[in-house]
Design goal:
Fumarate Reductase Cytochrome B subunit, single chain, two-stranded antiparallel ribbon, mainly alpha, elongated, binds protoporphyrin IX containing FE
Length: 187
């Protein structure tokens, strides 16, 4: 605890992961039409960040662990009902709905990255080129469609995520964005 009655919640690696993910996702989104090589590199960065987060969710610091914030569907629904009544409890780590959103975001990002790798490989580029090129006459189109679908779904989740962060900040009178920058939260 420091002098302002705050404790460290988000360790430096979680914060680095989060803001690098925001950067890489934004670059990937902005380059999808015209800048395929840059788009692919942004996708690789997202992929490595996801790998790191999956490992850190198992081995990381207290509030970074999946065991700290992944809750049962019943608990998530219960929390959302409390949220509607503006009576949801404040949590130090991720709240149950936030935890569910993180699982959804990580899963959607993982599928988007994998389908992107497959689509790229089927055009003869990227790490899967040897494996896929010439074996998939129409694979590229199918993977591209799936990739676009999941990218759009991820964007939809990001918008919900931002709404959730804004709502949670207002409800409990705390700046959650600042907490993801400094790592600290009020006790
Ligand atoms: C400027 C835009 C964004 C802001 C201000 C923001 C803010 C935040 C905040 C405040 C948290 C912590 C929530 C809590 O207190 O429980 C968080 C967590 C998270 N956000 Fe964002 N976010 C942004 C964009 C994104 C994007 C684009 C993605 C994914 C593509 C994303 C994925 C995540 C994930 C996965 C976590 C969990 C962090 C962890 O525990 O590793 N965010 N975000």
């Amino acid at each position: 605890m420091n002098q302002r009655n705050e404790i460290k919640v988000w360790d430096p690696l979680v914060r680095l992961f989060h803001w690098s993910l925001v950067g890489a996702f934004t670059v990937a989104w902005l380059t999808e039409d015209e800048w395929m090589v840059l788009h692919a590199y942004a996708g690789y960065v997202v992929g490595f960040l996801l790998l790191f987060r999956l490992i850190w969710g198992l081995l990381g610091t207290r509030y970074a662990r999946f065991s700290d914030f992944v809750r049962s569907p019943a608990r998530v629904v219960g929390y959302l009902l409390e949220l509607i009544r503006l009576r949801a409890e404040r949590t130090i780590g991720h709240n149950p709905a936030g935890g569910a959103m993180i699982v959804a975001l990580l899963t959607a990002l993982l599928i988007t990255t994998l389908t992107g790798l497959l689509a790229y490989g089927a055009t003869g580029a990227g790490p899967l080129a040897e494996l896929l090129f010439s074996h998939s006459a129409y694979g590229s189109e199918l993977f591209e469609e799936l990739h676009e679908l999941f990218a759009n779904f991820t964007l939809f989740l990001v918008l919900l995520h931002l709404l959730g962060v804004a709502f949670g900040s207002l409800l409990h009178g705390e700046n959650l964005v600042r907490a993801m920058i400094t790592g600290n939260k009020r006790v």
